[in-house]
Amino acid sequence: MKEKKRLTPEEELRIDRRIQISVIIIAVIMLLYLFWALRTGKNPGRPFSILILVFVVFYWLLGDIFAMFWKHGFAGRTEAQKKAYYMSVVMDAVAYGGFAYFLLGRNPNSSLIGAVIYMVGIMNARNFRKEYAKEAPEEERETAERGESGDSLQDPASSDSVLPTAANRLERMTASERLARLSAMTPDDEETEQTEEEIDFVEEPEDGDS
Length: 210
Known about the structure:
The protein has helices spanning about 10-40, 45-70, 80-105, 110-135, 140-150, 165-170, 175-185, 185-205. By secondary structure, it is mostly helical.
């Protein structure tokens, strides 16, 4: 399976704007409901608490999970970077849970606990996000890209250079090595080497031959 390429910054910005618009729409709906409840003299109580929980979960899913999927955010990332992002998602969930607890707290103590949980979660999520966004070494990035594209090691049986032939050996030799070898060879050795090259040429078919 071929890994999708990462989106350009402009494409990612368009996705971020759509997410922001979706979040704003839900926030406006919540505020309208709260205004309507206060205007009509009804207690928003439990329905408003449910709306807050829905908003927090929706914001977490949209910003941390769906956004990463839409942006192809794991393309070209190393395993360490992916792990750092997973941890940032977990920390975000903890932070948003603390935020919801803060809003729904029935007393100052519970609100304070929610605020502390939120701050700790956000700080840790930010640190993990930095690890994810940090530029990986060239070697690790190339390894990750090869792994994502499904490239496998070349089959030794299908390699053209499993055993070096006489022609291949001569191609790899430098000019000084060739001169030294020719000066040390006897006429019989030269005739034998020419014969080996002719055999190699006959045995190696040209590309396209079946």
